[in-house]
Amino acid sequence: ACLPGEYGHATGLDECTLCEPGRYSTANRTAQCLTCPPGSRSATAFGSLGCEPCVSGTFSGGGVSACSVCGAGTFSLAGAAECSTCPNGTFSALQGASFCEGCEPGTFSTGGQSVCTDCPAGRFQWSNGTSFCFDCSPGTDSSLGSVGCTFCRHGFYSGTGFPDCIACPDHHNTTGIGKTNVSDCVPHCLTGSSGYNGVEPCTLCAPGQHGPGNSTLCSPATVEISFWDGDLSIP
C-alpha cells in the first residue's frame, strides 16, 4: 500500500510514486496527491507530507516546492499568494522585503518604487512618507531634495515654484529680500546720485555733495588736503 507522500496509479496496486513538487498526500493508499494552495509550498521537493506557508518577502500561486522572492518596490507578509506594491510615500530597495520604508523629508514616491525621488528644484517636502512635493512660494527658491525654501536675496526675485531666483536687470536692485516680480527691481543709483528708495528716481547730487551707490541721501563732500614739508630744488 502507498504511504503518505506517495500515491498509487490504481487501487490495490503496490506500485507507488512519490508526490511531485508542489503536491502532497497525508494518507495511505492515496490515488492522487493534493496541490499545495496559494501562499504555500510543499515541505519537500518530492514525497511531501504537507505544505508550509511562504515566509515574509516571498509568495506563491500554489502548486510549487519553492516560493518566489518579491521584487524591489513590493513586499509580502507570511503566507502571501502575491506580493503587494509599496504604497505612496514608501519604498523597498531590496528584493524579499517584508515591509516598505517611508520616504525621508525632501523626497517622495508614488508607490511601487525601489527608491524615493528627490523633490525637484523649486519644490520641497518637510514631512516623512509623502507622495508629493510643495511648490516654493513666490519670492523664494530651493535646490534639489529640499525640505524648505529660501528667500530670494537682494537683487533677485521669483514666482511660484521657481527653481532659482532671477537676477534683476542691469543697474537695478530690490529694496529687500523675498521679492516676487521683476517690477520689484528698481533703478540702482550710481555713485554721485541719490534717491534709491523704490519710488523716487535717482538724481544727481548737488555740487559739493556726495552720494554713494544705493544711497537715499547726498551728504557734504569731504576733501582731503595734504601738505608737503620739504625743500624745493629749482635747477
UniProtKB/TrEMBL annotation:
This is Tyrosine-protein kinase ephrin type A/B receptor-like domain-containing protein. Residues 5-41, 73-106, 139-185 form the Tyrosine-protein kinase ephrin type A/B receptor-like domain. InterPro entries: Growth_fac_rcpt_cys_sf, Tyr-kin_ephrin_A/B_rcpt-like. It holds the Pfam family Ephrin_rec_like. It comes from Hemiselmis tepida. It comes from the Eukaryota. PANTHER family: INSULIN-LIKE GROWTH FACTOR BINDING PROTEIN,N-TERMINAL (PTHR46967), SUSHI, VON WILLEBRAND FACTOR TYPE A, EGF AND PENTRAXIN DOMAIN-CONTAINING PROTEIN 1-LIKE (PTHR46967:SF2).
